[in-house]
Design a protein that fits this description.
The complex is a heterodimer of chains A (about 160) and B (about 325).
Chain A (H helix, E strand, L loop, with lengths): L10 E5 L5 E5 H4 L3 H8 L7 E3 L5 H16 L5 H12 L4 H14 L2 H15 L4 H7 L8 H10 L9
Parallel strand pairs in A: 1-3
Antiparallel strand pairs in A: 1-2
Helix pairs in contact in A: 3-5, 5-6
Chain B lengths: L7 H5 L5 H8 L4 H7 L4 H8 L1 H13 L4 E7 L6 E7 L9 E3 L17 E5 L2 E4 L10 E5 L4 E5 L13 E11 L4 E11 L5 E9 L4 E5 L20 E4 L6 E3 L2 E9 L4 E7 L8 E3 L5 E7 L2 E7 L11 E4 L1
Antiparallel strand pairs in B: 1-2, 2-3, 4-5, 5-6, 6-7, 8-9, 9-10, 10-11, 12-14, 13-14, 14-15, 15-16, 17-18, 18-19
Classes of the chains: A mainly alpha (about 160), B mainly beta (about 325).
Pfam family, one (chain B): F-box
Protein name (chain B): F-box domain-containing protein
Organism (chain B): Rhododendron griersonianum
């Protein structure tokens, strides 16, 4: 039996890429602009909203973030800030990348901001060779080209390999 | 399999969409970005695009990551010494010395604070003297260590540089033109000993100067009954740095001979000088750019000696 969101006691179901379903309160889902637009345009009358790009582990994290921010939207900013830093603490690079991808897809600006900032803070003092590995970027410079680019801003490489 | 036909940009984003990479890179300090130009060709290309630079500026402004530019001078050579202090790491790293070759020129000896013509979005307009005429003008970016010398403009109407009595500058970002501009206002006397004023505008993207018509700068000087009666004129205070807000330059000026402090402005959009705000009363003021509003820090003349601002009003 198909039931609309409104009739479903203000809850909706999200389905991760690996098939796990999450029942979410509507006001929590509204943290995501993507879901908000879907609800507004009424194209979400299906029971389950599939999120084929987001795995269950990441989606659980995303919804944890959304719940905290939805419930605390009018409460103290300091409390949210400490939640945010605790939330990302000890998260590995793979999890952060998944989180930033999910935040981007679901259009959750606050989460995108903090996850992208966390990645930036982690890589800012790393040598560029290591950044290549972290981002899985192939070095397409010839050794001569790489040396020339480095020479453009030699001062920035002081203390780096 | 289609990888060979894809651009360098697309190839690098194989694992992470490029828009995500931009989100992350725009949150990095400039020094890291300059190193990460060495990661791959697409990052190199990205970091140099105007769109990325604008996004980086916007993101960094939101982060409140302030850097302080400290200028002092070498006692032996009398040349200026510049360093940068990043405040976002809690002053932990100390000042970073900036090595700009132009600072060692002989023309920069004896440099003082009046050698800063303006600062905007991390770009600094510098000169051996910004209150006198005919000195080289340099635009530099302390964060990237880049600099360029501004070309000389033609001052065919000026018979003798000795006749210049004062110069004032304004440097800022003109958002509707998406460009950085430098205005130079020159007060000079003609051979007939009549005081006159001229101004010209330097546009960074084209690296050229354009003269601003006489009629557009008349407010700065002239026989204006509005200010202090016949025979009086308006003079920009020499130590007043300009501030730019929404495409309008503002300077602190005073009316000669009454000494009344006023704010004069120049609108880059309309090339206009229509708006002249007067600070009420006989006050001495300095202007600071307080985010989106113009701050007037008002000092009654009495307290100026110890430099204590009596009130700060936002308008």
């Amino acid at each position: 039996m198909a039931s609309s969101i409104e009739n479903n006691n203000e809850k909706l179901t999200l389905k991760s890429s690996d098939g796990e379903e999450f029942l979410v309160e509507k006001h929590v889902a509204l943290q995501s602009t993507l879901l908000q637009n879907m609800l507004d345009s009424d194209c979400s009358s299906a029971d389950v909203i599939p999120l084929p790009k987001i795995d269950a582990r990441t989606l659980a994290l995303v919804l944890g973030y959304c719940k905290k921010h939805a419930d605390a939207s009018s409460s103290k900013q300091g409390e949210l800030n400490s939640f945010d830093s605790e939330f990302l603490k000890d998260m590995d690079m793979g999890a952060l990348f998944n989180l930033v991808l999910a935040a981007n897809f679901m259009e959750i600006k606050g989460l995108l901001d903090i996850a992208a900032q966390k990645i930036a803070d982690t890589i800012k003092d790393k040598p560029h060779q290591e950044v290549r590995e972290i981002f899985h970027v192939e070095n397409d410079y010839t050794p001569e080209e790489e040396a020339a680019v480095r020479e453009e801003n030699r001062w920035a490489f002081e203390g780096f390999p | 399999m289609e990888e060979g036909s894809q651009s360098a940009v697309a190839r690098a984003t194989f694992h992470l969409p490029f828009e995500i990479a931009i989100e992350i890179l725009s949150r990095l300090p400039v020094k890291s970005l300059l190193r990460f130009k060495s990661v791959c060709k697409s990052w190199y290309a990205l970091i140099k695009t105007p769109d990325f630079i604008s996004k980086h500026l916007l993101t960094q402004s939101a982060l409140n990551s302030t850097s302080l530019l400290v200028t002092t001078y070498n006692y032996e050579t009398q040349n200026p010494v510049m360093s940068l202090i990043h405040t976002d790491d809690g002053f932990n790293n100390g000042p970073i010395s900036l090595v700009f070759p132009f600072l060692n020129r002989t023309s920069f000896r004896g440099w003082d604070h009046r050698g800063i013509g303006g600062i905007c979005n991390g770009l600094v307009c510098m000169s051996p003297s910004c209150s006198r005429f005919g000195y080289p003008l340099i635009l530099c970016n302390p964060s990237t260590r880049q600099f360029r010398e501004i070309p000389n403009s033609e001052w065919h109407w000026l018979d003798d540089p000795e006749n210049v009595m004062g110069v004032s500058f304004g440097f800022g970002f003109h958002s509707s033109a998406n460009d950085y501009k430098l205005i130079r206002i020159v007060l000079y006397s003609t051979p007939t000993m009549k005081d006159n004023i001229r101004a010209d505008l330097y546009v960074m993207s084209t690296d050229t100067w354009a003269e601003i018509g006489d009629d557009k700068v008349s407010v700065f000087f002239g026989e204006m009954n509005d200010f202090g009666g016949f025979g009086s004129h308006v003079q920009i205070v020499e130590s007043s740095a300009s501030t730019v807000l929404k495409g309008v330059f503002y300077w602190l000026a005073c009316v000669i001979p009454t000494g009344e402090a006023i704010v004069v402005s120049f609108d880059m959009d309309s090339f206009d000088d229509t708006d002249v705000a007067t600070i009420a009363g006989k006050l001495i003021a300095c202007i600071a750019n307080g985010g989106s509003r113009l701050c007037k820090m008002v000092f009654p003349a009495m307290t100026l000696q110890n430099g204590v601002p009596c009130s700060i009003s936002l308008s």
